[in-house]
Amino acid sequence: MSRYNPKQTTLQAAIYGDNGTAVGEILGRNTAAKDVSRDSLVTACRFGKLEAVEAIIQNDTDAVLLKELGPSLLHDACLGGHVDTVRLLLRCGVDPEAKNKRQWYPCHTAAYHGEVTCLEALVGHGVDCNAIDPQGQTPCHLASRKTTQNP
């Protein structure tokens, strides 16, 4: 349950509360809310608010948000270990081979942060777990390096 924050919009409160029904209703009746749905989708993915993610995607009728943000959303979901969100994004067609600013694939992000279930979901979707980043590292390299740095 989220704490009350007087600076939160109704949409933000619904997202943090993972109230997909409320998110859908707000976006469905308020055209101004659609302008903030971009930030809302990022927030919902980053914090693993699955119902909110589903509601925002359903209201994104032309799939503009997923086309624009899909790769970063997948990285955010992997970073937080939100495997259900990862699976949803993959089902919606988000490219699991898209790189982030570090030129990492989502599997690198998941491995580096020790999010095994997210990595398994990506591999189950056909992602190459031997993908190499610009520094020549595979997800396995990143996972082992992270483990040795933080015993």
UniProtKB/TrEMBL annotation:
InterPro entries: Ank_Repeat/CDKN_Inhibitor, Ankyrin_rpt, Ankyrin_rpt-contain_sf. ANK repeats lie at residues 69-101. It comes from the Eukaryota. Keywords: ANK repeat, Repeat. This is Putative serine/threonine-protein phosphatase 6 regulatory ankyrin repeat subunit A isoform X2.
